Amino acid sequence: MSSNLAICGYLSADELATCLPAPERMAKGPVAVIECVQDIPCNPCEEACPVRAITVGLPITSLPVLDAAKCIGCGVCIARCPGLAIFVVDGSRPGDEGTIQLPYEAWPLPEPGESVHALDRAGRRVGTGTVEKVLSAKAQDHTAVVIVRVSKQLLNTVRAISVEGRAEA
Amino acid sequence: MTQSDTDIIVIGAGPAGLSAAAEAARLGAAVLVLDENDRPGGQLFKQIHKFFGSKDHRAGVRGYAIGDSLLAETARLGARIELGAVVYAIYPDRRVAVITADQRRLLLNPKKIILATGASENALAFPGCTLPGVMSAGAVQTMVNLHRVLPADKTLMVGSGNVGLIVSYQIRQAGGKVAALVEAAPVIGGYGVHAAKISRLGVPILTGHTVKCVHGTDRVEGATLVALDDKFRAVPGSERDIEIGCVAIAVGLTPLAELALMCGCKFTYIPKLGGHLPVHDDNMETTAAGIYVAGDITGVEEASSAMEEGRLAGIAAAEALGRVAPSEAAVLKQAVWARLNALRTGRFGQARRDAKERITAEGRGAHVV
Amino acid sequence: MRILRHPILGNLDEQPPVFIEVDGELIPAREGEPIAAAIIAAGRLKLRHTRKSGEPRGVFCGIGRCTDCVMTVDGQANVRTCVTPVKAGMKIVTQGASPEREAQE
Ligand SMILES: Cc1cc2nc3c(=O)[nH]c(=O)nc-3n(C[C@H](O)[C@H](O)[C@H](O)COP(=O)(O)OP(=O)(O)OC[C@H]3O[C@@H](n4cnc5c(N)ncnc54)[C@H](O)[C@@H]3O)c2cc1C
Ligand code: SF4
Ligand code: SF4
Ligand code: FES
C-alpha cells in the first residue's frame, strides 16, 4: 500500500507503467489510458465500451484491463467512469502535437479554440493546451469530455486543464 | 399519522430506511417511515458524484438521482413517510415515542421496527476547534450542494477518507479552493481515484500531517499545520501557516445507536466500523426480536451497502409478518446478499466484510429479549 | 457566498429573495433554506456566543445535533438555525454575551 498514489494522491511513473499504452500504439491512433489501479468494486467502464476493449470480470474488484488492439479511442468510457480515471491519448497526427481527451466537471466549461493551462497529475502547470472540442451530451450526465491539443511530449503527463485567469465574457 | 394499521415502523428515511420501506411495502406490509429531517434521503441527496459498483448497484449514476428513484419507488409501493418526526424513545413494550412536526407526542405500536438512523460525524479537538468556520465535512457538503452556499473562499480539509476526498472535490466544483487536505496517517484512507481527482486540480494532500491549531477571533482566519512522525508525534520545526476561512472535519462517523440501546439490543465494539454497534443476524434482526437495523447504524460503510442492508431488513421483516413465503423470501435475500458481498471485496471492502461477519456471527440465533 | 453556477447542479434558480433581520441588519435569503445558510451566504459565520465566556460559535454539525448554531428567532430562544427554515420577515438575534458588545455598552 505504500504507493505514491496512497501517500501523495497521484500515480508515480512506476505505478503508471501498467497503465500507459506502448509508444507504437499511441502513434497509431487514439487509445484509452485507464488509471485505475486499486481493487475497488466497480465496473461501468467494461459495459460502456462499444467494442468490448475493457474487461473487469469477476469479482468486480478486479482491475480493468484494456485490450489496446481493440480500443478505437472513441472516448465513450471517459464520462461513464465514476472515478474519472480514464483518458484517451492520440499521438498519431503529423507534427509536434497530439490530443488528450479528459473528463471535466468544473464550471465554466472551456471553449473550443481557447488556450488553457495544462496540469499534470499533481496539479502543476506543465504547459498550455488548445481546446479542440467540448463534448457534453445528455448521456454524459454533466461529465464533459474535453479534447485538448498539447505537445506530444506531454501526452502522458497532462491529466487536467484549468481556465483560471481567463477573461470572463 | 395513525397507528392502528401500521405493520412496520422504519426510523430514518436515509438510503437504508427508504430501501427497507420499499421492500417491505412491495411484499404487502403497511409501512410508516419517520424522519426528524424536513427532507427525506438522509445523506444521499447531497451526494452529487457518480457512484461506484456494478449495474445492479446503479453504478455511474449520481447519488441524488439514485435518491430520487428510491423515493419514487417507496411512494409508488405505498410506504408512508412522515417528516419532521423525531423518535425520542422506544419503550420496553416496543412502543415508539414520537414528536411530530406539529409538536404532537404520539406513542405508536408497530409489529416490527427497523432502525435506520445512520451515523453522526466525529469532532476533533485542537486549539481553535470551536471557532466559527470549523465545520463537519458533512455540514460543508450540505451547505455547498443542497443550499448552494460556500462558507469561505479557502478551506482546509482534515481527513482523507472518501468523505474528505469527495467533499474537497465538491468544494472545487462549487468554485471554492481547498488550501490543503491533511491526514495524520501515513497513507490516504479513501479511494486512489478520488484522491487523484483533487490532486490534479492542485489540492495538496499532506499525509503524515495534522492541524496544530486554528487562528482567528470571530471566525477562522488561518491554521498551522504540522508534520507527524511514525508515532504520530509532531515534528518540531515542521509547522507552517496557511490562510483559510473554513476548516472541514472529516475524521469518521459514529453510528447513532441510542434507540437500539433502549431496545436492549446486544452491542459489540468494532472501531473499524465506527465503534459500538448493535449485533444482528443475516436477516438484520438484532438480539431484540422484531427490532431490525440497517445502514450506517450497523457499522459505517457507504450508501450502496446501506441500501442493500435496508432491502434485507425490509424483506426479513415482511417475512416475519407472514407477508411472503420463506422459500420466496430466501430467494430475494439471496440476491441481495450477492450484491452486498460484491461491494465488500477488494482492499477497502474485505476488512469491512470480515468485521460485518463478526457481527452476524454474534447475532445468529441470539434473540434474547 | 452564493454558488450561482455549478457544473453538475446547473444555475441557481432565480427566486426573488425574501429578507430577514439579523441583529438589526436586513439580509437577503431564499425562502425555505435554513436560517444559518442565509447568514453564512451573507458572509457571517458567527451565530452565537457561549453564555459564560462569550466565545463565538458557528455551524458545526449542520443537522440539528450540536446546538452550536442556536439563535433567538422571533423572540424564541435556542432555535437551531441549521435546520429551521427561513420565512420572510423573521427577526433573528445573536444569543449570549459578546465581549465587544459589553465593552460598548
Ligand atoms: C459527508 C458524507 C459524505 C458521504 N459520501 C458518500 C459517498 O460519496 N458515497 C457513498 O456511498 N456514501 C457516502 N457517505 C456515506 C453514506 O452517505 C452513508 O453510508 C449512508 O447515507 C448511510 O445511510 P443510512 O440510511 O444508514 O443513514 P443516513 O443517510 O444518515 O440516514 C439516517 C436518517 O435517519 C434520521 N434519523 C436519525 N435519528 C432519528 C430519530 N431519532 N428520529 C427520526 N429520524 C432519525 C436522520 O434524520 C437521517 O435522515 C457519505 C457520508 C457523509 C457523512
Ligand atoms: S475509448 Fe472507446 S473503444 Fe477505447 S476503451 Fe474506451 S469506450 Fe472502448
Ligand atoms: S469505471 Fe473507472 S473507476 Fe470503475 S473500474 Fe472502470 S476505470 Fe476503474
Ligand atoms: S450546527 Fe449543529 S445543531 Fe445546528
Any overview of this molecule?
The complex is a heterotrimer of chains A (about 170), B (about 375) and C (about 100). By secondary structure, chain A is α+β, with helices and mostly antiparallel strands. Chain A has one domain (about 5-35, about 75-160). Chain A is built from 5 helices and 9 strands. Chain A has helices at about 5-10, 15, 25-30, 45-50, 75-80, and strands at about 30-35, 55, 65, 85-90, 95-105, 115-120, 125-135, 145-150, 160. A 7-stranded antiparallel β-sheet of chain A has the order 1-4-5-8-7-6-9. A two-stranded antiparallel sheet of chain A has the order 2-3. The mean pLDDT of chain A is about 95. With about 375 residues, chain B is an alpha/beta fold. Chain B contains 9 helices and 20 strands. Chain B has helices spanning about 15-25, 65-75, 135-145, 160-175, 190-200, 260, 305-320, 325-345, 345-365, and strands spanning about 10, 30-35, 80-85, 85-90, 95-100, 105-110, 110-115, 120, 135, 155-160, 175-185, 205, 210-215, 220-225, 240-245, 245-250, 255, 265-270, 275-280, 290-295. The longest helix of chain B has 18 residues, at about 305-320. Chain B is globular, with a radius of gyration of 21 Å. The two termini of chain B are about 30 Å apart. Chain C has one domain (about 20-95): 2Fe-2S iron-sulphur cluster binding domain, sarcosine oxidase, alpha subunit, N-terminal domain (Ubiquitin-like (UB roll), Roll), CATH 3.10.20. Chain C contains 2 helices and 7 strands, in the order ββαβββββα. By secondary structure, chain C is of the alpha+beta class. Helix content of chain C is about 10%, strand content about 25%. Chain C has helices at about 35-40, 100-105; strands at about 20, 25-30, 50, 55, 70-75, 75-80, 90-95. The model of chain C is unreliable at about 100-105 (pLDDT under 50). The chains are: A alpha+beta (about 170), B alpha/beta (about 375), C alpha+beta (about 100). The interface between A and B is large, with 46 and 40 residues. One iron/sulfur cluster (SF4) binds near residues 34, 36, 42, 44 and 86 of chain A.
